[in-house]
Structures are given as C-alpha cells and as structure tokens.
Design goal:
By secondary structure, the chain is of the alpha/beta class. The chain has helices spanning 14-23, 46-59, 79-96, 116-130, 155-164, 177-182, 191-201, 236-244, 261-273; strands spanning 4-8, 30-32, 65-67, 103-106, 138-142, 171-176, 207-212, 214-215, 226-227, 253-255. Helix content is 38%, strand content 14%. The strands form two sheets. The chain has an eight-stranded parallel barrel with strand order 1-2-3-4-5-6-7-10. Helix 4 links the parallel strand 4 (103-106) and strand 5. Helix 3 (79-96) runs parallel beside helix 4 (116-130). The structure holds fe (iii) ion (FE) (2 copies) and zinc ion. Zinc ion is lined by residues 176, 178-179, 224, 226.
C-alpha cells in the first residue's frame, strides 16, 4: 500500500493531526515541531500524545515526519545563530522521544558567503553534539533547490555532511522532488539515472522519505516554488513514475503542495488511483 500524507498544521495537537490525516485517506503526515519561523514550542501534552498513539495504531498511521523550523541555520557564520539552531533542534529531539520512531527533517542551512565547506563543517559539528546513541528519531537532511547559498544543492554536499557525522545510524535523507528538479536533476526524463547517481553518491539505503511536490519552475531554476501535483513543470506522469519506482515505492511520500485539506485529499486520491 502507498504510504502517503501531507503537511498538516500542528496547532491543534497530535490527535487532531491524526484525525485530519484519516479524513483525507492519508496514512502518514508531516508537521512543524513549532511555528515554522522558530518560535517557542508548545509544551508537550501527554494525554494528547497517548490518545494520538492509540488512534494512529487503530488507523494504520505510521512513520510520521517532523519538520524543523525552516529559519534555523546550522551553517551560519554567526555563532549565536548556530547555537540557536542547535538548542532548538535539541529541544525538538527531546520532544520527539514522546513519539518514538519518527523522522525529523531539517534544511541543512545556508553558508552565506563563507563557502560550502565551512557551512558543512558547522552542520556536521552540530549533529555530532546533538545526536545521542539512545535516541529513537532518525534525523533527515533535505535535498535543497540551491537558492542563494543553500547547502544541499547537490547529493555530494549531503554526502559530505553524512561522512562527518559519527552516529550515522541516526541519519538519513529526505528527497524533495521540487527541490531536486530545481537543483538540476532531471527526474522527468532521467529518473533511473538520477536515482543511480543518488545511490552512488549517498546510497539509497539512506533515503527515508520523499517530499512529493511539483515545481512552478523549469529544470535547474534554483527557485523552490512548489506547485500542485500535475500543475507544474514536473507533471503527473513523472509523479506517477516516482511513486511506483521500485527504489521508492515503499518509502513514505509527503505532499507540500499549495493546498488546503480538501485539496490534499484530492491529490492523495489521484496518487492512490495511480499506484500499481
Ligand atoms: Fe523542507
Ligand atoms: Fe520539502
Ligand atoms: Zn521547498
């Protein structure tokens, strides 16, 4: 069965997200651990978590994906900003222990003029101070579109980060279809070659989740503007090949398309109907 969900608002808590997911025939979902701009997180509500875990088990919801605030920059040359990223992620990882076994995705960051090497060193250093042998969450690096000085614009940069992390068993990668397309990887005409390249550079065993988004821009645009499924430059046929690809079909897929809940429901139905 296709494992698919979408990005949901976490403002009403875990159980409310679970119910929204079931409403649209999703069997997973993604959520921000706090306001995406990085404000203080709401306190964990143990009874909400307990009710959610029960509900998730009953309704076959598994492998949920938490997303770090996108304003964090672990690659910054400003020590204060790096410290803020580290503290926020540390707090998130502590909170995620209440829902053991999920993944936590973050944007590697932007080097803002120091060069990718320096940025990569900062990111790996943060992960090495953050990751603990006993944790139950897998931390994912997201493939980025390469806008500005974003790190993760190609598979090689993510490999360099992974190479420098000690507890690699707690690390993985989330591939965003809009981002890799904008980054110049032609997943429309050369999906097999792109995945072979991913396997050679990073290893498909490290791929843990897919952000399934169409793109408003052409190949290599480095823009990062998501489009609804089938309404962008990637197109529905390529999306259907992606969810059915032997190397990808068992992974969880997350929609981050410009939609409200009912629009997500229509995309999930469309993709389920095209999953062979
Ligand atoms: Fe993201
Ligand atoms: Fe994404
Ligand atoms: Zn994006």
């Amino acid at each position: 069965m296709l494992t698919i969900g979408c990005h949901l608002s976490s403002s009403k808590g875990y159980l409310a997200m679970g119910k929204d997911a079931v409403k649209i025939n999703a069997n997973t979902f993604q959520f921000f651990t706090r306001n995406p701009r990085g404000a203080k997180a709401k306190a964990i509500n143990p009874s909400d978590i307990a009710a959610f875990l029960e509900y998730a088990k009953e309704h076959g919801i598994g492998r949920i994906l938490a997303h770090a605030p996108y304003t964090l920059n672990a690659a910054s040359k400003d020590e204060g900003l790096r410290e803020f990223a580290k503290n926020t992620m540390e707090d998130d990882l502590n909170r995620l222990e209440y829902t053991p076994g999920c993944c936590y995705n973050f944007h590697p960051g932007s080097h803002v003029g120091q060069g990718a090497e320096a940025g990569i060193t900062h990111i790996a250093h943060m992960l090495n101070t953050l990751l603990k042998p006993e944790q139950h969450t897998t931390v994912l690096l997201e493939t980025m579109a390469g806008k500005g000085s974003e790190i993760g614009r190609n598979f090689e940069e993510l490999r360099k980060i992974l190479d420098r992390v000690d507890l690699k068993e707690h690390m993985g990668v989330c591939l965003d279809t809009c981002h890799v397309w904008d980054g110049g990887y032609d997943i429309v005409n050369h999906l097999d070659e792109v995945l072979d390249h991913f396997d050679q550079v990073i290893g498909l065993n490290h791929l843990k989740a897919i952000h399934l988004n169409d793109s408003q821009n052409p190949l290599g645009a480095h823009k990062d503007r998501h489009a609804r499924i089938g309404e962008g430059h990637i197109g529905l046929d390529a999306m259907v090949r992606i969810i059915n690809h032997p190397a990808l079909r068992e992974l969880p897929f997350y929609l981050e398309t410009p939609n409200e809940l009912d629009g997500y429901g229509r995309e999930i139905l469309l993709l389920r109907n095209n999953y062979i």
